Amino acid sequence: xxxxxxxxxxNILDTDCxxxxxxxxxxxxxxxxxxxxxLCVLLWAIVPPITFHSVKQSAPPYSRIVSLSPSITAxxxxxxxxxxxVGVTRYHPPLTKTVTIVGSITNPNIETIIALRPDIIxxxxxxxxxxxxxxxxxxxxxxxNLPAATSFAQLxxxxxxxxxxxxxxxxxxxxxxxxxxxxTLMMKTRDFADAIILLSYNPTIAVSDKSYISALFAxxxxxxxxxxxxxxxxxxxxxxxxxxxxxxxxxxxxxLLPKKFLRxxxxxxxxxxxxxxxxxxxxxxxxxxxxxxxxxxxLRQ
Length: 301
Known about the structure:
The chain is of the alpha/beta class. It folds into two domains: 65-183, Rossmann fold; 189-300, Nitrogenase molybdenum iron protein domain (Rossmann fold). The protein contains nine helices and ten strands. The strands form two sheets. It has a five-stranded parallel beta sheet with strand order 3-2-1-4-5, covered by helices on one side. Strands 6, 7, 8, 9 and 10 form a five-stranded mixed beta sheet that branches. Helix 5 (152-165) runs antiparallel to helix 6 and helix 6 (169-187) runs parallel beside helix 9. The longest helix has 45 residues, at 2-46. The protein is globular. The N and C termini lie far apart (116 Å).
């Protein structure tokens, strides 16, 4: 009997311990849930909402668009949707209809934009710093800021994003395939050379690899050696032009570089007015222009 009583007491003690342990675990879980709930409320209160610019396929097409970027305007035209534009900046690609001017690229007029009652405002990150982007966000009008296009791939991505907004995705995919084939064909004919690309000589302003111009020349087989600059268009000292490993100095202006450079480098003039970066098609046309101009200049030397 004694041994039986001892065993039964142990079972009772074990059962009490289990019940007590379960109560502690339940209380701990409840405390954790309360703490997590408080944390979520706190984060919701202090962290600003994150805006995602992905385009929902089920969203209705935007039919009243204000474009604050010439590049975006040109892509909308190329997608056969010029009729959706109700406002553009003063500097814009050719239009076949009259569209309200909402100011300049660097100074859009917010009151004019609101008066047009657009259903969306499209901007480019390239110009966002000077376009009162913070003020635009205070309006009830949706505003999408597309990334700066520093490469053909990003340009095509922006092109497709716009096509989704206006429900022209099949047309965009068809055109992108054609532009990609065109670009690939031209890249097969390129030569390779290390170069410095100058926007001007006096002052000496160069193109760094952060500029879309550098991407164009890279596709043409011309490697830009200015890679350490933190800006798109850095100032260079004249000594750097002599001492660099560049084989070629490409001048995009009509300025004549001093003849002393000819003893050390090949000088090639490629007029800047033939380089555009509006749409994937403009990119390909510019690439064709650069390759032809570069080869023609090299044949003369």
